[in-house]
Amino acid sequence: MKDDSIHLPNTDDPEVMHRAVAAALVALCWDEVIRTADLDHLDDKAIEVFTRVYEGIGKAFK
User: Fold this and answer.
1) Tell me, what DSSP letter sits at residue 41?
2) The pTM is what?
3) pLDDT tens digit string along 28-49?
4) In this structure, are residues 50 and 26 in contact, taking their beta carbons and an 8 Å threshold?
5) Is 1 a residue whose pLDDT tops 70?
6) Dihedral angle of Cα 38, 43, 48, 50, to the nearest 10 degrees
């Protein structure tokens, strides 16, 4: 059975938590990302998706 639970770090550092939440959200949508991405550029797509999520989280808490 697949464990879909998200484990965030136990930290008070906002930057570490920001990155961890962004990574967890990307992991949640990763199956969709790989279905729609060009497999030759999957690394670039992963970075693009992470960056968009990371920036979106940052905007949400300003």
Assistant:
1) G
2) 0.76
3) 888 888 888 788 888 898 899 9
4) yes
5) no
6) 130
